[in-house]
Amino acid sequence: MAFTVTPVLAGTYAFVADIIADADADAASPNIPHGLGAVPVVVALCPLLQVAAGLSLWALTTVDAVNLVATKSVAVGSGVAGAQVRVIALLPHSIIS
């Protein structure tokens, strides 16, 4: 089994994707290209499935100008078929500053 990354929004200043890790043994996501062209200023992980996401202990290990990489634990019950976590990456924009 493997990670599945599904982009929800791929804009100029924002990138949003849902991540599925359907096996307990899944530990590190592949590179997730965000397409923002710079290092995002704000990056957040939002749990979507409370129990599975809680067991998974999701964390971001890489945030650079090209990719995001997330990791999770391999605890029993941490792999499920649905999207567990949403990653959100944002660049500054004049409407925010």
How would you describe this structure in keywords?
7% helix, 4-stranded antiparallel β-sheet, 3-stranded antiparallel β-sheet
**Strand order, sheet with most strands:** 1-2-7-4
Radius of gyration equals 13 Å
Number of helices: 1
Main β-sheet: number of strands, strand sense, barrel status? 4 strands, antiparallel
What's the overall average pLDDT, rounded? 89
Total number of strands: 7
Q: Could you give the topology of this structure?
A:
Blueprint: E1 3-10, E2 14-21, E3 32-33, E4 42-47, H1 50-56, E5 59-63, E6 67-71, E7 85-90
Antiparallel strand pairs: 1-2, 2-7, 3-6, 4-7, 5-6
Write a compact overview of the structure shown.
The protein is mainly beta and 97 residues long.
Give a verbal description of the structure:
The chain has one helix and seven strands. It has 97 residues and is mainly β. It has one domain. The strands form two sheets. A four-stranded antiparallel β-sheet has the order 1-2-7-4. A three-stranded antiparallel β-sheet has the order 3-6-5, with no helix packed on it. The model has no long low-confidence stretch (mean pLDDT 89).
